[in-house]
Amino acid sequence: MSKVIKFVEKIFNKMIIFKTGSRYLQIFIILLLSVLIHGCSDTANNQIRLPSTELYHQAMVSIEDEYYNEALKNFEILVEEHAGTRLATLAHLKMGDIYFIQSKWEESEISYRQFLLLNRRSHLTPYVLNRLIALNYEKNHYGVFFKSRDYDRNMEPNRKLLKEYQRFYLLFPKSPYLKEVKEYHSRAMSDLAEHELNVANYYFSKQAYHSAIGRYLFLLKNYPGFPHTANVAERLIKAYRLNRQSELADEMQWVLDSLRERNLLAQHDTSEE
Predict the structure, then answer these.
(1) Is 162 domain-assigned?
(2) Please, how many CA atoms are within 13 Å of residue 182, restricted to the half-sphere of its CB?
(3) Residue 52 in contact with residue 82, Cβ under 8 Å?
(4) What's the domain count of the chain?
(5) Domain containing 11: what range?
(6) Pick from 117, 123, 108: which is nearest to 175 by CA?
(7) Alpha-carbon torsion 48, 54, 56, 58, what sign?
(8) How far, in Å, CA of 116 to CA of 123, rounded?
(9) How far are the Cα atoms of 47, 69, 259 from residue 83, in angstroms, in the given order?
(10) Cβ atoms 237, 209 nearer than 8 A
(11) For residues 130 and 177, is the Cβ–Cβ distance under 8 A?
């Protein structure tokens, strides 16, 4: 190929020196030279492309050495140059793992979901769903959704986690990852309940008793296992009285006392703000 290019260049140079050849012929030779050079470039690129196994191996070695960015580069090349292969598909999962380690929750979720899209019946699906549940929980605690004021904290990742949990439980009720998934589910439920309590207490502190009552009732109805149920009930009773709903306050007090008499409700310190 190099000899052909040199030959064309030689002819072209002579044409320029001696001003021979038609203008169209010169243009044709220029285009021919461009095509040949481009073809050589493509050939060179094809020659230096590494096989998928080598790229995957290099990436895995980088992960073991904790050179995560280097591993990501190899996985990205693998996905681009060997799309559709088994290792290219697996690379999406590994990229999700790396982004998870780096606390890059959005990138991690995109990579995991891409793997699921390409592997609808993979034996690794339970693991990936488990990671999706975990990252949604971690995202809410340490990621961009975290805010110092609990009452205006975005709890959407936790709600998303609950949906993923239902999906996981229905599809893989005997999975070895189920125990870990249940733990994340329990934490998410607890966080959501705490959030509802913080929002209700915020309304209470602003004397928006009607809004506070709605939040306390929602918490009691939807989070029956919340450990501070007695606390919530007593705050609800106070809100009823301050909102001039004495009858409802008395009814709630009777229910609370009855549960305590039967030891069905734990005693909690309610001396708060």
Answers:
(1) no
(2) 10
(3) yes
(4) 1
(5) 2-48
(6) 123
(7) negative
(8) 11
(9) 18, 20, 62
(10) no
(11) yes
In sequence order, what are the residues at sequence separation of 6 or more whose Cβ sits closer than 8 angstroms to the Cβ of residue 54?
none
Phi (first) and psi of residue 264, to 5 degrees = -95, 0
Quote the CA–CA distance of 111 and 124 in Å, as a whole number. Answer: 14
- Give the up-direction half-sphere exposure of residue 4: CA atoms within 13 A in the CB hemisphere: 10
| Residue 73 within any structural domain of the chain | no
What is the C-alpha separation between 52 and 81, in angstroms, rounded? 8
Three-state DSSP class for residue 200: helix
What is the Cα 246 distance to its own chain's centre? Answer: 47
As a whole number of angstroms, the distance between CA 242 and CA 263 comes to 28
Q: Rounded to whole angstroms, how far apart are CA atoms 110 and 100?
A: 11
Per-residue pLDDT of the chain (273 residues; tens, 9 = 90+): 555 555 555 555 555 544 555 555 556 555 555 655 555 544 444 556 889 999 999 999 999 999 999 999 999 999 999 999 999 999 999 999 999 999 999 999 999 999 999 988 899 999 999 999 898 888 766 443 344 445 556 677 777 778 888 889 899 999 999 999 999 888 888 888 888 999 999 999 999 999 999 999 999 999 888 888 999 999 999 999 999 999 999 999 999 999 888 877 654 444 444
Task: Identify whether the C-beta of residue 202 lies closer than 8 Å to the C-beta of residue 172.
Answer: no
Copy the structure tokens of residue 139. Answer: 């995202």
pTM of the model: 0.65
**Left, alpha or beta for 149 (phi > 0: left; psi -120 to 50: alpha)?**
beta
| Residue 164 within a domain | no
Let me know if residue 21 belongs to a domain: yes
